[in-house]
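[agent] plan:
  1. take the single chain provided in the ticket
  2. run structure prediction with default settings
  3. attach structure tokens to the ticket
  4. add a short note for the reviewer (M.T.)
[agent] executing step 1
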Amino acid sequence: MTTRIASMSRRPLTAALTMALLLPGVALADTKKEKELEARVAQLEAQVQALLNAQQQQQSQLTQTQGQVTQAQTQIDQVRTSVATAPAGKAPIQSQSIVSGAMPNTTFTFGGFIKFDGMYTDTSDGRITDGSAGRLFYVPATIPVGGAGADGGDGYTDFHAQFSRFNFSMDTVTENGDKLKAYIEADMFGGGSNTLAGNETSTNTYALTLRHAYVSWNHWLAGQTWTNFMAPEALPDAVDFLGPTDGVIFVRQAQLRYTNGGFSMSLENPQTTMSAYLTGARSNSGDNALPDLTAKWATKGDWGSFSVAGLLRQFKYLDQDKSGGALSVSGKLNMGKSDDLRFQVNGGKGVGRYMALGLAPDTVLDADADLHVENAYGGYVAWRHLFSPQLRGNLMYSAALLDNDPQYTGYGVTERSQSWHANLIYSPFPKLDLGAELTWGRRDLEDDRSGDLKRIQTSVKYSF
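[agent] step 2 finished; step 3 output follows
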């Protein structure tokens, strides 16, 4: 029994010893697995974090892209809204500037008009030469006097659209406030071609004619435009190209002009027109060394406008050197809301080519080919009345008097011309004019012969 008891007492001890020996191994095993698990967990956490970072980056890019799309859509909506709400005719026709090579802050404009003229003319002393300017508008110098036959025969009709014109203008204001302008205008009053395809037989083709071409910078202007001696603001409202041509100062030419307020002066292209001894045959001299000099003072207000202009000229032919000068006074007086009065008075020594489209020569040659400067005077008065906002009428009288010396000019040259004009112009729309005008003109020679012109002229003019 003692042995059995001893044996039983040894079993717990053996178990204890066994457990003592095994526990360190188990502990070691558990520690290794834990480390492996921890390493695996750490690796998984890193992978998850990387996935989260990638997802956040993609979300950020997606948000940015969505913002760009939203901004672009907003801009598109704004353009659509502006186009939809823009007044008729104001919608942009292109996204870039028409004058992409121009300076910043440049405004481009295009304008002009289409004009149809139809006229019936009756002249007392022969017909005006077909194709000449006098068949297209009133030119006093073309009125026939003493033509073949007792009278001019039957009247004649002309249709044309040669005075239609177009212009381009570019206006710039710099950051410093400087103002620059470029302007060019042309019409089709350049004559027809001599070929079958370019005359009234078939296609009525006409050459392009330069009217204006200039650039201006603040007070300065250089290029071709109206002479500074002229007053365009006082021209009457005529159906004819000019209307009271006899007394009008009318020249376009190259010049250098300075303007400051109401004062302006210019140096302009010189040209001497001459009349041959006793015959009246015309010729030009390009021998001038000095430009024509003009100076003008103009003012305007609610009452209208008024200007005084002076002209100094050199006349040169070979080694001969003469001088002359002229004066012009023009105005437009408003007489209430429905009437205005326009006028011009001109006169001087050598005003010839500036007045009445060159009705008088600047100079005349004597038997020894010496140069003599001619005097001439002229003017017009025109009354304009508004019958209604759509209907207006004009009554005009114009005259020119040439102070010839018959011992040099002979008696076959023009002594005077005069004309009356009356018209009605109806505008069913603001830019459309339908006009009809009656004209009577007369040209008298130094030998007391004269010739008359009677004309009925109609026109359709659409400005843009």
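[agent] step 4 note for reviewer: The longest helix spans residues 2-85.
[agent] ticket updated
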